[in-house]
Design goal:
Layout (H helix, E strand, L loop, with lengths): L1 H11 L16 H25 L11 H10 L5 H11 L1
């Protein structure tokens, strides 16, 4: 947490009434800019960690039922009559 508080101090400049500081400009905005920037950084870190830990989607190259049927027929697992019957059932 020490890093976050020092990071927030660096981003917000020397203070609200002591000038702009670090090029953030004058007025009311520099007072909150460090916190906003800090939340943005933390949000991006969380987003990328969740994205990296997310399980990959199911592969889209799964064979179709007809392709599986043809492979089983080619391997000799089923005979021609069963192949034709199952192929008609798929249609």
């Amino acid at each position: 947490m020490e890093f976050l508080s020092s990071f927030n101090s660096w981003c917000s400049g020397p203070g609200f009434f002591q000038g702009a500081g670090h090029g953030w400009g004058g007025g009311f905005m520099p007072f909150h800019m460090g916190s906003i920037f800090q939340l943005l950084i933390i949000g991006l870190i969380i987003y990328f960690v969740v994205r990296m830990l997310k399980k990959p989607a199911t592969p889209t190259d799964t064979p179709s039922p007809e392709a599986i049927l043809k492979r089983r027929y080619a391997n000799g697992e089923i005979d021609e009559q069963t192949f034709k019957s199952m192929k008609n059932d798929l249609k």
